[in-house]
């Protein structure tokens, strides 16, 4: 599997317009409904024929109505609860409602308390949600979550912000989510993954990257397969490159040691740890191949092919000086942990990073990303500033 494109909501709107113009029939809603109905049938198997479908007031509700009609034609017992008004539905969603009514069915205003369902389909709100759910919509979400029934969400669980993954008041806890055309960042970040359950992508027969440049990519297995090659039998560690890791101040040696062990397990031939602690250990008995050196020795010319700076580095003057020296090394550099915090707090280090010509990758967690952006590390800020690619200098 190659890298999978990721698009924010605004980009998805552009992509849907381009896709609809290039291939107008069947409509994207019809394709999404057919794909989701087929997935729902797989989830139901032979155990159940009772399905609840909750349809919202927009296009996500139209998708849900398409699903309901497909399942009804496949002899499922389908109950549809609608949270929309016919006159306010978008065109394609109105057409989907006409199909549902054409098979002789009607809509309910609420989930029937006396019924038991083998599967619930969540088509209440999709990627267009911008306000917290409240009132009747929030009540529907809470009732869905309380059913104790597997829930299949369409495109994204209702109540999850498609760009950030934040919960908008409340959100559906889906057991499965089928998303259409491409991934959205909210499926993969913040609260999104905990609400999506098993995530399935259906491109609806499209090649989104050929229509619009992705804003980000989800790495697939083939990326790793291409990066880690099968080695010949006539091989030694000197042919597998060397990694230098700078960090491990007093009390935080473990962070650098874990990074070193990970580098070895990923296939590095030689791994050098430049530890800042005044009393570095003599040997790592779990991974004795690790070479424990003074930091300056790791920075010697041509010693390493790749440099890592930051795990357990601390925020002392010694750490700042060491990081400054690492930024001048003309080798690929990975910046992690305290290296990021030092750069966020020191303009000279930030300028040195900006001037680097060699490949540089930054790996911030949300709070570190917020500091680099000059924002308080709040959940709302972290979500609002989703970045699709690793920062490279």
Structure description:
The chain is α/β, with parallel strands linked by helices and 393 residues long. It has two domains: 220 residues, Rossmann fold (3-Layer(aba) Sandwich); 146 residues, Ribokinase (UDP-N-acetylmuramoyl-L-alanine:D-glutamate ligase), CATH 3.40.1190.20. Helix content is 38%, strand content 16%. The strands form three sheets. It has a six-stranded parallel sheet, with helices on one face. The protein has a six-stranded parallel sheet with strand order 11-10-9-12-13-14, sandwiched between helices. Strand 2, helix 3 and strand 3 form a beta-alpha-beta unit. Helix 2 packs across helix 3, helix 3 runs parallel beside helix 4 and helix 13 runs parallel beside helix 15. The radius of gyration is 26 Å and the shape is elongated. The C terminus is likely disordered.
Shape: elongated
Number of helices: 16
Mean pLDDT: 91
- Low-pLDDT segments: 379-393
What is the total domain count? Answer: 2
Short description:
The protein is α/β, with parallel strands linked by helices and 393 residues long. It is built from 16 helices and 14 strands.
Show the helix and strand layout.
Blueprint lengths: L3 E3 L2 H14 L5 H17 L5 E6 L3 H15 L3 E6 L8 H12 L16 E5 L11 H12 L4 E4 L21 E5 L4 H4 L3 H5 L1 E5 L5 H4 L4 E3 L2 H7 L14 E6 L5 H13 L4 E6 L15 E3 L1 H4 L7 E4 L7 H11 L5 E3 L2 H8 L1 H9 L4 E3 L3 H7 L6 H6 L9
Helix pairs in contact: 2-3, 3-4, 13-14, 13-15
From the structure above, extract its key features.
16% strand; 2 domains; 16 helices; 6-stranded parallel beta sheet; single chain; Rossmann fold; 393 residues; UDP-N-acetylmuramoyl-L-alanine:D-glutamate ligase; alpha/beta; disordered C terminus
């Amino acid at each position: 599997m190659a890298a999978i494109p990721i698009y924010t909501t605004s980009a998805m709107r552009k992509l849907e317009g381009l896709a609809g113009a290039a291939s107008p029939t069947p409509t994207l809603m019809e394709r999404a409904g057919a794909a989701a109905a087929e997935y729902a049938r797989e989830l139901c198997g032979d155990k159940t024929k009772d399905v609840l479908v909750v349809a919202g007031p927009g296009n996500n509700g139209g998708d849900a109505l398409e699903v309901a009609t497909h399942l009804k034609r496949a002899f499922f017992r389908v109950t549809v609860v609608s949270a929309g008004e016919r006159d306010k539905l978008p065109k394609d969603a109105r057409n989907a409602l006409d199909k549902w009514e054409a098979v002789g069915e009607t809509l309910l205003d609420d989930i029937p308390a006396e019924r038991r369902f083998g599967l619930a389909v969540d088509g209440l709100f999709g990627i267009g949600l911008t306000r917290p759910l409240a009132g009747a919509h929030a009540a529907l979400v809470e009732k869905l979550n309380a059913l104790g029934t597997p829930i299949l969400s369409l495109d994204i669980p209702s109540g999850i912000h498609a760009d950030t993954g934040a919960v908008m008041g409340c959100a559906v806890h889906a057991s499965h989510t089928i998303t259409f055309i491409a991934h959205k960042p909210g499926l993969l970040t913040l609260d999104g993954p905990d609400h999506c359950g098993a995530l399935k992508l259906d491109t609806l027969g499209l090649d989104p990257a050929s229509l619009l440049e992705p804003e980000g990519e989800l790495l697939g297995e083939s990326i790793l397969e291409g990066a880690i090659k099968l080695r010949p039998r006539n091989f030694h560690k000197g042919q597998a490159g060397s990694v230098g890791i700078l960090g491990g101040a007093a009390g935080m040696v473990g962070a650098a040691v874990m990074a070193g062990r990970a580098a070895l397990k990923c296939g590095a031939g030689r791994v050098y740890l430049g530890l800042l602690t005044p009393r570095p250990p003599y040997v790592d008995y779990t991974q004795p191949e690790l070479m424990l050196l003074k930091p300056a020795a790791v920075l010697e010319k041509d010693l390493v092919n790749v440099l890592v700076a930051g795990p357990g580095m601390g925020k002392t003057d010694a750490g700042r000086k060491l990081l400054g020296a690492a930024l001048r090394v003309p080798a690929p550099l990975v910046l992690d942990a305290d290296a990021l915090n030092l750069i966020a707090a020191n303009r000279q280090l930030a300028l040195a990073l900006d001037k680097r010509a060699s490949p540089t990758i930054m790996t911030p967690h949300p709070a570190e990303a917020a500091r680099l952006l000059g924002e308080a590390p709040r959940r709302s800020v972290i979500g609002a500033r989703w970045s699709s690619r690793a920062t490279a200098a």
